[in-house]
Amino acid sequence: MPADGWFEWQKEGGDKQPFFIFHKKKEPLFFAAIGRQPYGQDHGKEGFVIVTSASNQGMVDIHDRRPLVITPDAVREWLSEETSPARAEEIAHDAAVPEKAFTWHPVSKKVGNIHHQGSELIEPLPADKD
Fold it and tell me: Do residues 123 and 107 lie in contact, with contact meaning Cβ atoms separated by under 8 Å?
């Protein structure tokens, strides 16, 4: 599943602050996902799930899990019908983009409302002025 980034909410007291997480170099991301074949045909079982992994090395401050982001070179093999579950597990381990490749910033709480859409939702919140 291609993406520019993802949102996570961090608890702050009794409130939650959303953060936008993205590649430091603003490169496209590829979330590992699984679905039900045959794709492109109506069979009543449409959809997919995004595979997650544990957050480490600082990202756990935001959330304890994250989408499993794989390298662009691994996408074709991940999507291949020839890829066995054992090989998919190897790809998840060997081709995972490390946490140090990501950065994040707080964003508007409007991201939690379906009525708000648009690129302004990933803009950083202005810094507090003391």
Answer: yes
